[in-house]
Amino acid sequence: MNLKNKVCIITGAASGIGYGIAKRFVADGAKVVIADLKLDAAQKAADELTAQGPGEAMAVEMNVTDETQVNDGVAKVVETWGKIDVLVSNAGVQIVHPLENFPFDDWKKLLSIHLDGAFLTSKAILPHMYKAGSGSIIFMGSVHSKEASALKSAYVTAKHGLLGLARVISKEGAEHGVRANVICPGFVKTPLVEKQIPEQARDLGISEEDVVNKVMLGQTVDQEFTTIDDVAEVAHVFAAFPTNALTGQSLVVSHGWYMN
Ligand code: NAD
């Protein structure tokens, strides 16, 4: 089970969990595409990872909600490396508000990044995987693909939606040797989560300490954050698994916050 010379596109990989997955894949010999909003941040990440080796990384500027940028980015990868073996659709944001105050524009923005992003990148990549007769698509879900939390109507809706999309791709992709799965992490300390701590304290009227200890970690078995490395390890399993027996699944990695 290794990723040597596998071409892996990871969206939102200039930062946080996406970067951690890219690092894990490059360490295993993969050719990784850092697809992110800003080319300079993506290039910096790609340079760091190529220096680390033994795999290599390239940067692609990609707003996952922009069909032209997605298609152009995917075309550039195929032109450069000739194929795509793995897609990790990871780019995401968090926006929290009580539903009655949730600005419609924020709702649409969040759903677009998570759902349009997964749809557009999958749509652009599937023909290349079908042609090759193999491929692994991985969506970055969340415990919020299975659970709900106050203030997170848009995020919970989007993350539940990814389960459905992955299951459809696993059915449509089967005859072409393509599988699709979802990773569902608990809270991981990345910029996305750091930003939420004061926002949730404000909206819930509690201290930042209580946001961390009660809201984020209160239902874990050991009051621990999930780490980027934990999530990267699960991504590696879905990417490198040798057969398509592992398809249409979602795996929760959350210190027991959610058990199924
Ligand atoms: P992060 O903010 O550290 O990284 C997100 C990355 O996505 C950034 O590099 C950003 O530039 C990029 N991005 C944002 N919008 C984009 C767009 N339109 N097109 C391309 N790139 C875009 O966040 P993170 O915590 O690493 O989150 C990554 C994924 O993991 C998200 O889908 C998030 O929902 C999911 N997730 C995070 C946690 C957590 O606790 N951090 C838990 C479960 C799931």
What features would you describe in this structure?
By secondary structure, this protein is of the alpha/beta class. It folds into 2 domains: 7-186 and 228-253, Rossmann fold, CATH 3.40.50; 189-225, no CATH class. Helices cover 49% and strands 15% of the residues. A 7-stranded parallel sheet has the order 3-2-1-4-5-6-7, sandwiched between helices. β2 (31-36), α2 (39-52) and β3 (56-61) form a beta-alpha-beta unit. α1 (16-27) crosses α8 and α3 packs parallel to α4. The longest helix is centred in the middle third of the chain and has 29 residues, at 104-132. The model has no long low-confidence stretch (mean pLDDT 97). Nicotinamide-adenine-dinucleotide is lined by residues 11-12, 14-18, 36-37, 62-65, 90-93, 113, 140, 142, 185, 187-188, 190-193.
Bound molecules: nicotinamide-adenine-dinucleotide
CATH topology of the largest domain: Rossmann fold
Percent strand equals: 15-25%
Tell me the span between the first and last alpha carbons: 26 Å
